[in-house]
Amino acid sequence: MAGFIDIHHHFYCPELNASKSTFSAKAGWRTPQENLPWSPELSIQVMDSLGIQVAILSFPAFPAGEISAENRASARRRNDYVASIRQKYPDRFGFFATLPFLDDVQGVLDEIAYVLDVLGADGISISSSYGEGEASTYVGDDRYEAIWAELDKREAVVFLHGNQIPSSIPSPHPTLGLPVCEVGHSPAIRKPETDTSNLYMQVPSETFKAAAHLVVTGYKRRFSKVKIILAHLGGSTPFLASRVAILSRYMGCKLTADEILDDFRTFYYDTALSSWGSNLTMMESFVPQTQIVFGTDFPGGVLFLLDVVRYAYLSHNPPCDDAVTT
Length: 326
What we know:
This protein is of the alpha/beta class. Helix content is 41%, strand content 13%. The longest helix is centred in the first third of the chain and has 20 residues, at 69-88. The protein is globular, with a radius of gyration of 19 Å.
């Protein structure tokens, strides 16, 4: 059966299903009620309506965590849970595995071995940064070198999703919540957690900052066998890559401007909540069409919007009759 592969498709484990509406409301976004509680059967229903043959499931990105046995156990439970879904519906789902808090390097390496060697995961899902406030660390930091070396050795696929980080600046309007736009300063200067009036997210910028960090530190070039997919067409990455190439070079990056841009072009970019026709036209002038992959962000997206995304992508990437379009 020909159809799309949805690279960006979230699963909610039971505890997240129970709290998702409250969490989304604080962020200024309403997860469609018809998508809650999430179930694999609900996803299959929507996939069938959109011509999606396979969805690659991933857990939503969260920055919080700690080095602990419970954190390792939590990642293991999520991975075993999503693997059971893939086992039940092997023709409809794959999954990107969840890792423990990234500072727990040994725990992360152990989980990489488990999910790839035992569970047969399709890849690894990571957040743009780990920790909160001034303790936040982006994924190109040297403390994670051993993790990237292992992923490179395995030629792994990595799905990089921008973090959901609170901002200190209020929403400009109730209709401009996550993921419509993004505002904000560093989370280090946000208001206290008890004040939720300004709780906002800057997912697109966080994706860009993580991608740029991997480029200017040389990690993207050094660990080139890792295939990294950036969510939401990379957020603001396509628009700001040239700024990094010029200004970071001036500020001391050892790569030339051309090398920086070349490394940005080696990322893969998924279409989730981003594939309006003009966006895709711009992306095709930035990266080869083979670097653009289909994604919906279900169950966070509204069904009619997912249909717009599908047809915008389809207009630029007609599917083959005898193959799955990726």
